[in-house]
UniProtKB/TrEMBL annotation:
Record-linked Pfam families: GDI (PF00996)
Segments passing through the bilayer: none
SUPFAM superfamilies (alphabetical): FAD/NAD(P)-binding domain
InterPro entries: FAD/NAD-bd_sf, GDP_dissociation_inhibitor, RabGDI
Domain of life according to the entry: Eukaryota
Name used for this protein in its record: Rab GDP dissociation inhibitor
Protein's organism: Mycena indigotica
Gene Ontology BP term (one): protein transport
GO terms of molecular function: Rab GDP-dissociation inhibitor activity
Record-level GO cellular component terms: cytoplasm
């Protein structure tokens, strides 16, 4: 392995695969390695055998769940926002040709002990039990204000400055009730907690516009999802990288990350061989305490654990109009918490499980010493649970930007229900590795595969 690479990428999570794909397109010589024998790292989709091997070593998957190959169960529940940044990258890099998407049937919100659909049309909004008649009028004015907003036309501002006034001020201006604020902030702007209310309104405005434009794109919900599971996403970017000369090695144990006397990155040792490169990018598991000689490269973020329960059901979630897929948001103050609880469900129509099986994942940020207890409000909505796999994962973030030693660490996948923060991390790492902002260039050549 005497070859010198520009970049070695460790781990095949979505963040790492997007980066290796984009760096390969840019003309960089990329070597991509993963200790697992499957793509996707923490963002993989597993078949039944892999799922049981991971969570219940030594136990066979029950035969009543059907064929192993019918399953692609996500480890991390996320949907793609139709008009979001990930969609732009997918379209721009032409990775969409390796993927097929299906819409998520509905987005729901939990309020006063009941599940209600987040309205996707004006007709649904009029009928929605989420607001009373007068509140609906106020909310209509609020949304008209957002849709009519033009930065360069003060007449559309109604005396509000989005960059200075807090979201609280905006809500109060339109007289919106706490329940409506809750619904807008958590089910549309998709905030995990209420910290946003006292901050300037601009980011919330951007998030609501993103949500409504994504909703308008396909109708029923703002989310799309790849057939055969989220693990298809990293694989598609891996293919992009390979077309442009990237080299992939799965099932490679990383023995050591080699640095020189000053601590600068030199190469990676695997199976007694060292391969050299100018830079390394990797997920936190390759740099955590005890992962190599590189302890101290990552730290756990504040409120830094996520609990997720992967549940296999033999029926759709009750009170969701028998939807074949959905998201349910339980806003934190409905259950006296600091953070929201999310439920994401997909089914056989997405080619991720056998016929008449549904996969629901309940997740939230851990706040106590009893994480399993914290997701009970979400589990209670599912009806009888056939199988359940529980994980509690720490969230890591890099301790340095990598510029000093050419070691660039990505962040763990957070508790948000979509991929926007993943793209933010991609843009952040790209800027640190390449030294300039990520600009999606048109691909010039149609490379022969």
């Amino acid at each position: 392995m005497d070859e010198q690479y520009d970049v070695i990428v460790l781990g095949t999570g979505l963040t790492e695969c997007i980066l290796s794909g984009l760096l390969s397109v840019e003309g960089k010589k990329v070597l991509h390695m993963d200790r697992n024998d499957y793509y996707g790292g923490d963002s993989a989709s597993l078949n039944l055998t892999q799922l049981y091997r991971k969570f219940r070593p030594g136990q066979e998957a029950p035969t009543d769940l059907g064929r192993d190959r019918d399953y692609a169960v996500d480890l991390i529940p996320k949907f793609i926002i139709a008009s979001g940044e990930l969609t732009k990258i997918l379209v721009h890099t032409d990775v969409t040709r390796y993927l097929e998407f299906k819409q998520i049937a509905g987005s729901f919100v939990y309020r006063d002990g009941k599940i209600s659909k987040v309205p996707s049309t004006e007709m649904e909004a009029v009928k929605s039990p989420l607001m009373g008649l007068f509140e609906k009028r106020r909310a209509k004015k609020f949304f008209e204000f957002l849709q009519g907003w033009k930065d360069d036309d003060p007449a559309t501002h109604q005396g509000i400055d989005l960059d200075k006034d807090s979201m609280k001020t905006v809500y109060e201006k339109f007289g919106l009730e706490p329940g409506t604020q809750d619904f807008i902030g958590h089910a549309m702007a998709l905030y995990l907690d209420d910290d946003y209310i006292t901050k300037p309104a601009r980011p919330t405005y951007d998030r609501i516009v993103l949500y409504t434009s994504s909703m308008a794109r396909y109708g029923k919900s703002p989310y799309i999802y790849p057939l055969y599971g989220l693990g298809e996403l990293p694989q598609s970017f891996a293919r992009l990288s390979a077309i442009y000369g990237g080299t992939y090695m799965l099932d490679k144990q990383i023995d050591q990350i080699v640095t020189d006397a000053e601590g600068n990155f030199v190469g990676v040792t695997s199976g007694g061989e060292t391969v050299k490169a100018k830079q390394v990018i990797g997920d936190p598991s390759y740099f955590g305490a005890g992962a190599s000689s590189q302890g101290g490269k990552v730290r756990v973020v504040e409120h830094g654990r996520v609990v997720r329960a992967i549940c296999i059901l033999k029926h759709p979630i009750p009170n969701t109009d028998d939807s074949d897929s959905c998201q349910i948001i339980i806003p934190q103050n409905q259950v006296n918490r600091r953070n929201d609880i999310y439920v994401a469900m997909v089914s056989a129509t997405h080619n991720v499980c056998a016929k008449d099986i549904y996969v629901a994942i309940v997740s939230t940020i851990v706040e106590t010493d009893n994480p399993h207890h914290e997701i009970v409000p979400g589990l209670n909505l599912l009806g009888p649970i056939h199988e359940q796999f529980l994980t509690v994962t720490p969230l890591y973030t890099p301790t340095s930007d990598g510029s000093a030693d050419n070691i660039f660490v990505t962040r763990s996948y957070d508790a948000t229900s979509h991929f926007e923060t993943v793209v933010e991390d991609v843009q952040d790492v790209w800027k640190r590795v390449v030294g300039s902002d990520l600009v999606l260039k048109k691909r010039e050549v149609e490379v022969q595969e």
